[in-house]
Automatic annotation (TrEMBL):
<dbReference type="InterPro" id="IPR043133">
    <property type="entry name" value="GTP-CH-I_C/QueF"/>
</dbReference>
<dbReference type="GO" id="GO:0008270">
    <property type="term" value="F:zinc ion binding"/>
</dbReference>
<protein>
    <recommendedName>
        <fullName>GTP cyclohydrolase 1</fullName>
        <ecNumber>3.5.4.16</ecNumber>
    </recommendedName>
</protein>
<feature type="compositionally biased region" description="Basic and acidic residues">
    <location>
        <begin position="21"/>
        <end position="35"/>
    </location>
</feature>
<feature type="binding site">
    <location>
        <position position="182"/>
    </location>
    <ligand>
        <name>Zn(2+)</name>
    </ligand>
</feature>
<keyword id="KW-0862">Zinc</keyword>
<dbReference type="GO" id="GO:0006729">
    <property type="term" value="P:tetrahydrobiopterin biosynthetic process"/>
</dbReference>
<dbReference type="InterPro" id="IPR043134">
    <property type="entry name" value="GTP-CH-I_N"/>
</dbReference>
<dbReference type="GO" id="GO:0046654">
    <property type="term" value="P:tetrahydrofolate biosynthetic process"/>
</dbReference>
<dbReference type="GO" id="GO:0003934">
    <property type="term" value="F:GTP cyclohydrolase I activity"/>
</dbReference>
<dbReference type="InterPro" id="IPR001474">
    <property type="entry name" value="GTP_CycHdrlase_I"/>
</dbReference>
<comment type="similarity">
    <text>Belongs to the GTP cyclohydrolase I family.</text>
</comment>
<dbReference type="GO" id="GO:0006730">
    <property type="term" value="P:one-carbon metabolic process"/>
</dbReference>
<feature type="domain" description="GTP cyclohydrolase I">
    <location>
        <begin position="44"/>
        <end position="218"/>
    </location>
</feature>
<keyword id="KW-0342">GTP-binding</keyword>
<dbReference type="InterPro" id="IPR020602">
    <property type="entry name" value="GTP_CycHdrlase_I_dom"/>
</dbReference>
<comment type="subunit">
    <text>Homopolymer.</text>
</comment>
Amino acid sequence: MKHETILPVNGHAETVAQSQKVHEPDAPTAAGEDKPYDPVLADLVRQMLVRLGEDPTREGLVRTPQRVARAMGFLTSGYHISLDEVVNDAIFQDDGEEMVLVRDIEFYSLCEHHMLPFFGKVHIAYVPNGKIIGLSKLARIADLYARRLQVQERLTNQIADALEQVLAPRGVAVVAEAVHFCMMMRGVQKQHSATLTRAMRGVFKSDAQLRREFMDAVGQRQG
């Protein structure tokens, strides 16, 4: 494996692995540390620690680059799976015409602007048009798009787009509520703010009564 030497910062010399091969650890020492990680990403984390003025060889940080690489691999795993793989043929013929709603689906994501977390819950509903989807797939679709660098507005619309693509329903409604660490830990530092986004498609957009029923059901009563 080739290495590129990085100039020392605060007395610590660093190297960057020039291989994309996923590293398989030999002897895990804690839960989760037996999972593979990207060694290039781990080396970049090590460089960041040095740039921040830390010593990546001290006891508390020795395994931090690998841990961060594993964590980022999981938190951005949505880039590496397709909608078809998530749905996995869990589409069924059905004559139902009433709203199907799964609410309070927890999600966790990373803001693409500062790579800080935002998290909350999403409510997903659709009105069938001859087909229904396994209920757990609604949560998995939310995770598919949440586990990427995101903005909440896009996340909400991507979930709605995905349901339209796989079901062609009469309507789709998605509401997401989240708190953003980029507004809490830095910047304006507002600890009690929350962001609400929504996407209404088909009959949820054209039928005010149905839209009201959905919003009431998820606790977003309209005046």
